[in-house]
Structure formats: structure tokens, C-alpha cells
Write a structure and sequence with these properties.
The complex is a heterodimer of chains A (82) and B (724). Chain A has helices at residues 3-53, 55-59, 61-81. Chain A contains three helices and no strands. With 724 residues, chain B is α/β, with parallel strands linked by helices. Helices cover 40% and strands 15% of the residues of chain B. In chain B, helix 2 (47-53) links the parallel strand 2 (34-40) and strand 3. The radius of gyration of chain B is 38 Å and the shape is elongated. Classes of the chains: A mainly alpha (82), B alpha/beta (724). Chains A and B meet through helix 1 and helix 2 of A and helix 16 and strand 14 of B.
Chain lengths: 82, 724
């Protein structure tokens, strides 16, 4: 095998290594994004838990239930008319 | 031969279920001798005959002798077994593995004093009772797993116990087994009711373990008409008040919400059983009545001390009119004070310096071995403390991160916040960096280091962050970006010791200025590279003499940081004001108010563009730093404002000691006044110095700083640490 062949192979290997490193860095960045989004979900779940656990949320529950019921009734009436 | 285990049942006219109960006990498949003990308090309905028919050892007592705690103590004394499983006369073991499961519970740990199992409702029980039992026993191991309860000693565990003790203390001798060894230490107490709850509490608070075994199930439930339920709940909650000091919440909002919540549980339970739509209306109305009665009984019962005796008797299902609180001695495990005249310190698991206690004993920096491959792109993890908008140190960090990104490297920022300063999620912090600090930064921002995965290089950026970074796994190298000698931030204190400790951890450092790199190398023996910050020339454009107002002096007066020697600057200005009463110092950089003996004005903390305006208008700038050289001086220099600084190695290293670029005053008020006055008087020399300073700043770009940092990191990666 000529020294030229070795050089070619070395260059190819280096290029492949560089590509692999770049891919690893890209995947790592993707992992960080997913970790951040996971933290985001946990944070938002905490916010929802806190909100739904509040007295104001519970006290106004009948209003929301009434609204849901009103929407349902209206839809049913619309369906009957339609 | 003595029995290994005793099944003990106190009875009184219990013929209705007793035959079924004893037959189920006799059918138990357990690899030990079982003694069946019945303590009867004067039954007249055939109970004794049923017991005898099942070969039980019957111990009769008079009705007057009976008490829940006392009778069970008697049973414990009479029992031959080292474990005594208690049943009531209407609690039937659900299968033949009940007793074996009870004994298995004791094998879960060496310190188990009590084992209890779930109650399965009888088929005719109401849906409220069935739902309540299912939910209640799901508290332990989800109702399906073996669950060991023990009083933990950490702050968090103690706080949890205080918040919801029932999770630990609940024990029912309707279906519970007691280890005699533990009972000798803590027997049943002579209380009228809830003796089992008291035993559970005392055992747990004495440090014993308690076990819930899901297979140790019995069939047992009570159903009463509404009025009797009210009286039963009155009894139960009076006893809980007597022995556990539990007081049920009575509140115009919370109480209806509690009832609504309980009805909601029933609704979901019924729906799981296939009850839907209009069929739910009637059972839920019954539920609402039941839970309303329950809460009423609970509220009145737990306040029985305020109820007149005749009414107590009328409300009690057992006809008891007394209220006798049982004073449980405070557990040494829970004792909040030992001194009669002391106050307990608030217990909080989230102690600020927990990260310090976890950092010892000292460990070497954790890195993975590598061959010295410095090829990129690298993955760089930065651990930073929380920031305030305008923080100079963070601006530098984010600019350096941006420089690495522009060179193709991937970065992530972990915000290490042991003091709980940050309340924003990572996405908002990321936006803040891009909008308020350095546009274009792509790095994700994660809270804490718990989600850390791996990195080619992990960088500590401040003394607190050096502790967690030291132990991060899967890193080829660990670096420390040192922008200042942080030990100097603290007086003689624990924080000073800890800050200094970080310089002994063996980090490879990248220091701001050669001066700081020398200190780290000479004083602490650390490998140390350096970088020099750039200046944002777009924000701080050069302005010549034109437009400058003769007596305006821009003064960096950040009182929050003592190293800025603000009072020394003020002393110099006070001397100057005596000589030149017309000077108009304009202070900036602090939220604190100043009281001064000369006329001055205070901008407070303002945006860089406002400062730039001031720098173009003033005739002299005054910036002091007793540690690292301040970037504020660079910004003034970029703006063409002649600067007076304090002489010292820190400034000399950054700007040279000749005084060509800035005027260097000795640390004396009169010398400071002299230097400012000279610049005010000799505008030609001042302007020449300002031009040289501008040229100096122009050479120091952020690109250059990025090259210096990248060079340092390449050096780290190309030359792995020597091991062993």
C-alpha cells in the first residue's frame, strides 16, 4: 500500500471522526433541549397544581361547571334545531 | 409447646360473626403453632360456646373490667405467642394466608413492632364505606405493596410526619399484630377509645417500624343509619382529639369543599363500578348526606371539650360523657427543644448551605480518563449562579458562551441556585439572556445540575458552583472561570473559607486578566490561563472633547460591593469639592442612597445606553476596584472619557503601570482629588490619554476573548490530567 493510500485513508477517517463528533454535539444539544422541555413540563404541572389547589379555583368551580353545562345544552339545542 | 403466634379476640355478644371469624382463623395456613385466645366480657348470646367449639382459650372478665386498651394488655399478658394478632369479633380473615402475611410483615425489618392489613368491606356495605376503605388503605403501598413506615430523622421527613402524621401512626387492632417485645416497652394505654391509634403513634415516635401488608386482609365494615353514623363519628373524633390532639377543620369554605371532595371520590368510585348518568344522582345524594354527617360528627367530636356533658352522652354511640385528653410524652425523636427557656429553630430541609455539607469529605475533581483528543465541536456545560439583569459577571459569561457557539461548540447553561433566588423556568431565563444580555445565545438553560448528562468540559463560574461541578459525572475536563478573587468578597467568615476551598479543588482555571491568573498560579498552584474582556463599541462609541461639560464627573458608586471602594471615591471628591465647589459628580451603579457633604446627583442602576450618554458628557470618570479590574473603566475608555483609577497590581496588570491609559491615584483622598483636578484642568493631556485608551480598548474585542478561552479549553483537552 502506498503512502498516498494511507494518507487518503487517514483523511477519510479524520473526516468521519469529525462528522461523528459534530453529530454527537448535535444530539447532545437535542438532549439538553429535551431536558429543558421536561423541566418546563414539570414547572407548568406545578403551576397548574398550585392553581387548581387554590381556594379561588375551588370556589369558582360551580361557575365553570355551569358554563360547561350551558355550552352542552346550547350545542344539544343547536343539534336538535339543525 | 408454646405457640409462636397468638390470635386474640376481645368479645362481647359477638355471636353474629364469631363462628365465621374463628373458622377462618382455624383455617390459616401458617408454619407455626397458633394459639386462639378469646377475652370475653360477659357475653350472653352463645359467644362462649362458639369460642369453645373452635378450641379457643377463653378468658372471661366482667363487663366492668373491659376497656379497649386494658383488655388488650391483658390479652398480651395471657398470650403465649411472641406475636399477637388482634381481631375484632366481626373481622373475618379474608383468606387462609392472612396470618402468614402478618408474620411476614415482621420479617420486613428487625425493628417492626406492628403489622396491619387492609379491611375489605362486607358486600352489603354502602358505596361510601367501600370507597372510603379503598382510598384509606391505598395510603400504604398503594394498597397493593408491602409498606414499611418508620419515623425518618431528616428535616424533610420530620416535617412530612408533622404535616400528615396519620400516614405513619395509623394502626388498627381490628386487624393488627403486635410484637410482644415492643409491647413490653410500650403497652396499650388505659384510654377509652382509639387505643390502637395511640399505640401506633407511640411505637412510631419511639423509633419502631410499622408495616402494612396488603395480603393481611380482613372482611370488616360497619354500616349504620345516619343518626348512628353521626354518633359514631362523634366518638371516633373525640378519641382522636383525646389521644392525638387532632382537631377537624371547621371553615365556611374549606368544610363544604371537603364534603364536595369526598362526594367527588364517591362519584369516581361509582363510575368505575359502571354507574353512570342519572343513576348517579341518588347515590351521590346519599353520599352528600353521609359526608355532611361525617364532617359534623368530626367537627363536634374533635371539640368535645366544649360540648356539655349531657349532650356528649347523647351524641356518643357508646354513651360516654367524658373527655379525657391523654398527654402523650414528647418523643425524643421529635423533641423540638431540650431547654425550658429555648425556642425551637424552624426545621427546613431546603437549607441554603446543604450543598456544602454534601460536598464533604473533600473529593478529587471527577473526570473520565481520555487520550487528549482536543478535536471539536465540544460540548461545554456552564454552571452559573442566578443573575440580576445588568450583572457584569454574567454578561461576560454569556458573551464567552456566544463566542464558543460562533466557533461551532455546543453549550448548555445550568443555573445552580442553592439560595432560591430564581423563580423563572429555563425557557424564560434563556429569553432573558437573549434579550437582556447577549443576543443570539443558543444554549439551553436548565435549572440545577440534577439533569446534567455529560460534557467535554464542565465550567464552574463562581465559588458556589465549584462544589457541584467538582462532582459532575461524565466530563473529560473541568474548568473554573475566575473573574475575581472571591475570597476577598467576604470578611472573616465561613463563606470565605468555602470560597478559598474552591481554589484548592484542583480546577484548571481560565482567569480574567493575567493578574488574576498569576494569583491563582502563585498562591494556589493552579494551572491558569487568562482572557481579557472586550467592550461593546457599538454601545460605547468614542466622543471627543466637544460636548463634554467641564465639571461633570461620572462616578461608579456601586455601594453594594465594598471592593469598589465607594467611600474612598467619595472622600476624594469631598476634598476636591472643597477646592472646586462647582464640580458635579454623577453617581451610578447602586440602588442604595448616598448622603454626601457635596452637591452630587445619582442615576442609580441604569441601562448601558444611558451610561454611554453620561460618559460622552462627563469630563472625568472615576472607577475604583480593589480586586479585579472593572469593565466599567473599559466602557469609559471606549467612550473617550479620561479615567482615574486606583493604582495597584490589579490595574497595572490590565492597563500597564505607566498611567498612559488612565490616571493612577494612590489610595488617599487628597491624591485622588489631585488626579481628578489635573484631568479637569489639563484637557489637552486628558484628551490624548483618552485617545490612547480608546485604541487600547479597540484591540480587546470579544472575538479575542473567545479565542483566548477556546485556546485554554483546547489546552485542557489536549493535555489530560495526570492520574494517581
Amino acid at each position: 500500500m502506498s503512502s498516498n493510500d494511507w494518507e487518503q485513508r487517514a483523511l477519510a477517517a479524520e473526516a468521519a471522526l469529525e462528522e461523528a463528533r459534530a453529530e454527537r454535539a448535535r444530539l447532545w444539544q437535542e438532549l439538553q433541549r429535551l431536558q429543558r422541555e421536561r423541566q418546563e413540563v414539570a414547572h407548568l404541572q406545578g403551576v397548574v397544581r398550585h392553581m387548581e389547589g387554590s381556594v379561588s379555583w375551588k370556589v369558582t368551580e360551580p361557575l365553570r361547571a355551569a358554563k360547561t353545562l350551558a355550552i352542552r345544552v346550547r350545542r344539544q339545542l343547536e343539534q336538535r334545531q339543525g | 409447646m408454646a405457640a409462636a403466634v397468638t390470635v386474640a379476640i376481645p368479645t362481647y355478644n359477638g355471636a353474629r360473626y364469631l363462628d365465621e371469624v374463628l373458622a377462618a382463623v382455624r383455617a390459616q395456613r401458617v408454619g407455626a403453632d397458633v394459639e386462639l385466645l378469646v377475652v370475653d366480657s360477659g357475653s350472653t348470646d352463645g359467644t362462649l360456646e362458639i369460642a369453645a367449639a373452635h378450641g379457643a382459650r377463653v378468658h372471661p372478665i366482667s363487663k366492668a373490667e373491659f376497656s379497649h386498651g386494658g383488655t388488650r394488655n391483658l390479652a398480651m399478658q395471657l398470650a403465649e405467642g411472641e406475636h399477637v394478632a388482634f381481631l375484632t369479633q366481626d373481622a373475618t380473615p379474608a383468606h387462609d394466608g392472612w396470618l402468614a402475611a402478618m408474620l411476614e410483615g415482621f420479617a420486613a425489618a428487625e425493628d417492626v413492632a406492628l403489622v396491619f392489613g387492609p379491611h375489605e368491606p362486607r358486600p352489603d356495605a354502602s358505596h361510601m364505606i367501600k370507597c372510603e376503605m379503598e382510598r384509606h388503605f391505598a395510603t400504604w403501598g398503594g394498597g397493593t405493596e408491602l409498606d414499611v413506615q418508620r419515623l425518618g430523622r431528616t428535616a424533610q421527613e420530620v416535617a412530612e410526619y408533622r404535616r400528615f402524621p396519620g400516614r405513619w401512626t395509623f394502626f388498627s387492632d381490628v386487624n393488627g399484630c403486635v410484637a410482644k417485645a415492643a409491647w413490653r416497652d410500650i403497652p396499650y394505654r388505659p384510654v377509652a377509645y382509639a387505643e390502637d391509634q395511640l399505640l401506633g403513634r407511640e411505637m412510631i415516635e419511639a423509633g419502631y417500624a410499622k408495616v402494612f401488608h396488603p395480603r393481611a386482609a380482613v372482611i370488616h365494615s360497619h354500616d349504620y343509619p345516619p343518626a348512628q353514623f353521626l354518633r359514631r363519628y362523634f366518638d371516633e373524633f373525640r378519641s382522636l382529639r383525646e389521644v392525638l390532639d387532632h382537631v377537624e377543620v371547621a371553615h365556611p369554605v374549606y368544610t363544604p369543599l371537603t364534603i364536595r371532595g369526598l362526594v367527588g371520590h364517591d362519584k369516581r368510585w361509582l363510575q368505575r363500578q359502571g354507574v353512570q348518568g342519572r343513576d348517579l344522582v341518588r347515590p351521590l345524594a346519599v353520599s352528600a348526606r353521609h359526608h355532611g354527617i361525617r364532617q359534623l360528627g368530626a367537627i363536634v367530636g374533635s371539640r368535645a371539650d366544649r360540648v356539655p356533658r349531657p349532650l356528649r352522652r347523647a351524641l356518643s354511640l357508646e354513651g360516654r360523657d367524658s373527655f379525657t385528653p391523654y398527654d402523650v410524652p414528647e418523643s425524643p425523636l421529635l423533641a423540638s427543644t431540650t431547654q425550658p427557656d429555648s425556642r425551637p429553630v424552624r426545621l427546613d430541609a431546603g437549607w441554603d448551605y446543604d450543598f456544602i455539607t454534601r460536598a464533604y469529605p473533600s473529593r478529587e475533581i471527577a473526570t473520565v480518563p481520555h487520550a487528549g483528543d482536543a478535536g471539536g465541536p465540544w460540548r461545554v456545560a456552564w454552571v452559573v449562579p442566578p443573575w440580576r439583569i445588568g450583572s457584569g459577571g454574567h454578561t461576560t459569561i454569556f458573551r464567552l458562551i456566544r463566542q464558543l457557539e460562533l466557533r461551532g461548540h455546543s453549550n448548555v447553561i445550568h443555573v445552580f441556585d442553592p439560595f432560591g433566588h430564581n423563580s423563572l423556568p429555563g425557557s424564560e431565563l434563556r429569553e432573558q439572556i437573549r434579550e437582556q444580555f447577549v443576543p443570539g445565545v443558543e444554549a439551553e438553560v436548565l435549572l440545577g445540575v440534577e439533569d446534567f448528562d455529560s460534557a467535554d468540559v464542565a465550567m464552574a463560574t463562581e465559588w458556589t458552583t465549584a462544589f457541584p461541578v467538582r462532582d459532575l459525572p461524565n466530563c473529560r475536563e473541568k474548568g473554573y472561570l475566575v473573574q475575581d478573587i472571591e475570597t476577598e468578597f467576604f470578611a472573616t467568615s465561613a463563606q470565605r473559607i468555602w470560597a478559598e476551598e474552591t481554589y484548592r479543588m484542583g480546577y484548571r482555571c481560565v482567569a480574567y486578566t493575567p493578574w488574576m491568573a498569576d494569583i491563582l498560579r502563585d498562591d494556589y498552584g493552579l494551572e491558569s490561563h487568562w482572557f481579557e474582556c472586550g467592550t461593546d463599541l457599538d454601545v460605547f462609541p468614542f466622543a471627543g472633547e466637544e460636548g463634554r461639560e467641564g465639571e461633570i464627573i461620572a462616578v461608579y458608586a456601586r455601594r453594594e460591593t465594598p471592593r469598589r471602594a465607594v467611600d474612598l471615591a467619595m472622600a476624594g471628591l469631598a476634598v476636591l469639592a472643597q477646592r472646586r465647589p462647582a464640580i458635579r459628580p454623577v453617581l451610578f451603579g447602586s440602588r442604595q442612597k448616598s448622603v454626601l457633604p457635596f452637591a452630587a446627583e445619582d442615576l442609580g442602576v441604569v441601562a448601558p445606553r444611558r451610561l454611554s450618554q453620561l460618559y460622552r458628557q462627563a469630563s472625568v470618570g472615576l472607577v475604583f476596584s480593589l480586586t479585579t479590574h472593572s469593565l466599567v473603566a473599559h466602557e469609559m475608555m471606549a467612550s473617550g472619557l479620561p479615567v482615574v483609577e486606583l493604582e495597584g497590581d490589579n490595574v497595572g496588570s490590565a492597563l500597564g503601570a505607566s498611567g498612559d491609559l488612565v490616571a493612577l491615584a494612590e489610595k488617599r483622598p487628597d491624591d485622588i482629588a489631585d488626579h481628578v483636578e489635573r484631568l479637569l484642568d489639563d484637557r489637552e493631556a486628558a484628551a490624548a490619554m483618552a485617545r490612547r485608551a480608546r485604541a487600547f480598548v479597540e484591540e480587546r474585542t470579544w472575538e479575542r476573548a473567545g479565542d483566548q478561552l477556546e485556546g485554554a479549553l483546547r489546552e485542557f483537552l489536549a493535555n489530560p490530567r495526570r492520574r494517581g
